[in-house]
Design goal:
- The protein has strands at about 15-25, 25-35, 45-55, 60-65, 90, 95-110, 120-130, 135-140, 180-185, 185-190, 195-200, 205-210, 220, 235-240, 245-255, 270-275, 280-285, 300-305, 310-315, 320-325, 330-335, 360-365, 370-375, 390-395, 400-410, 415-420, 425-430, 435-440, 445.
- The protein is mainly β and about 450 residues long.
- It has a five-stranded mixed sheet, with no helix packed on it.
- A hairpin with a 5-residue loop joins strand 3 (about 45-55) and strand 4.
- Mean pLDDT is about 90; it is low at about 75-80.
């Protein structure tokens, strides 16, 4: 949608997520995840495909993942999934690869954490896939690193301290939950929601360090001027500046809430400075709107914009805010009812310009006063592509259409205009000034 809240592009029906403008070889593309949520076990995860479109919405490719090792909670024998990419991450790298997450229902002895010996957990997986060949370039498994990241570090517990689920393949224990991955020097940085951690991996998958939101993990927390460095249930960790060897500043959306641990601290956009040589961490800023304190149990985005502006989206709570360099709110939007409409991630972008390969659509309706209204839309066309509609009318169903019978200003996703009395057929063209960009089909008006 545009900054006024008007839709720009509406996809086909289906379950879609993680819509993002990215680049391949310097050209803008639109990527999104589509598939099934739950996979028979956990509603927060998905089994699907990453679709990549060009600026005309033509398909560039579908990225898939199925190496034959995945097990979902439902019957794999009767209904295998064609692809097992999860909804949480789909970052396209400058080198022409894509980083994605996946989850595998895995048998595991959970007796060490009070669960069943013949229990089940969700293995949190990371893949980097070559976009040209669909070949896997890198794979990482949380289960294969339990010695470095033990099960007792998980916070995915009932209030009484017992693990949530884990009794069978349909209800595995989701102990880790990687919800963001980003390339970092010679490796990756992960956001692990149920572990309350930011974790840095080297290029071979070894754990370089772990920053824990409760006690610091490998870092000593330095609290200055009352600014706490704690965080929990976080999303969308991204490096802001620095390297993995000296100093690093990271940002995240700090939910600080989940379904059973909420209302105690507001959700904020958190920036942390890590001294990687002395292993200390301190808070740079914790951004929120003091006039509108929000508690988001899940999802969320915090990103930095040009000119020191910042952008916050609260995920489960359908609110968006842009802040200026003084952390003052300069844009405030809401797109639904709390806890009924959500957006896993939201991005404020200025570089998406798209001209759809399909034609505009038009339709007519008759008002009670007898006037005919023409509705015109061009799904996917961005506001920079066209600014008006040229309407062609004819009083004869089969007669020639009069050019430029009227021209009206574009007023959003759909523009309405009143047709001339006696119009029997009509066509419309999306235009930039007087330059026609694309014409609709001609339709008959009335009986």
């Amino acid at each position: 949608m545009d900054q006024l809240g008007n839709p720009i592009w509406h996809s086909a029906n289906g379950y879609l997520g993680q819509l993002e403008v990215q680049q391949i070889q310097g050209k803008n593309v639109l990527s999104y995840w589509t598939g099934g949520i739950g996979g028979g076990f956990v509603d927060a995860h998905g089994m699907g495909t990453i679709t990549i479109l060009d600026t005309s919405y033509r398909l560039i490719q579908n990225v898939t993942l199925n190496d034959g090792t995945f097990k979902a909670g439902d019957s794999m024998q009767n209904n295998p999934y064609p692809s097992y990419i999860d909804i949480h991450e789909s970052f396209i790298t400058p080198k022409g690869s894509i980083i994605v997450t996946a989850y595998n229902s895995t048998p595991y002895d959970l007796s060490a954490v009070g669960g069943p010996k013949d229990g089940w957990l969700l293995d949190s997986l990371i893949y980097e896939i070559d976009l040209r060949t669909n070949e896997t370039l890198f794979r990482w498994s949380s289960v294969e690193h339990i010695n470095e990241l033990p099960l007792n570090g998980s916070h995915q517990l009932h209030p009484n301290g017992t693990i949530i689920d884990g009794n069978n393949a349909t209800h595995p224990w989701d102990y880790f939950l990687t919800n963001s991955v980003y390339p970092l020097d010679d490796g990756y940085i992960l956001s692990c929601r149920h572990y309350w951690s930011a974790i840095a991996l080297d290029s071979r998958g070894g754990v370089k360090w772990s920053l824990n939101g409760r006690d610091g993990g490998d870092f000593k927390m330095i609290n200055q001027s009352g600014k706490s460095s704690t965080f929990s249930w976080q999303h969308f960790i991204r490096p802001l500046s620095g390297t993995v060897d000296k100093n690093l500043t990271i940002t995240m959306f700090d939910n600080h809430n989940n379904g059973f641990d909420n209302g105690t601290a507001p959700s904020t956009g958190l920036a942390l400075h890590l001294d990687l040589q002395n292993r200390t961490v301190e808070t740079v800023s914790a951004l929120q709107d003091p006039k509108d304190v929000i508690y988001a149990d899940s999802q969320g985005t915090y990103s930095r914009l040009p000119h020191e502006h910042k952008f916050l989206a609260w995920g489960q709570i359908p609110k968006l805010k842009e802040f200026n360099e003084k952390d003052q709110v300069v844009m405030n939007a809401k797109f639904g009812y709390d806890n009924q409409v959500s957006s896993y991630r939201t991005y404020l972008v200025s570089n998406w310009s798209a001209t759809p390969y399909w034609a505009p659509k038009i339709a007519t309706t008759q008002k009670p006063n007898g006037n005919l209204t023409l509705s015109m839309s061009w799904n996917g066309a961005t506001p920079d592509v066209y600014d008006s509609w040229i309407i062609y009318e004819s009083a004869d169903v089969n007669g020639p259409l009069r050019e430029h019978s009227q021209q009206v200003r574009r007023t959003g996703f759909e523009t309405n205009a009143t047709l001339s009395v006696g119009t029997r057929s009509v066509m419309a063209a999306a235009a930039k000034g007087h330059q026609v960009k694309r014409k609709s089909a001609s339709i008959r008006v009335g009986n």
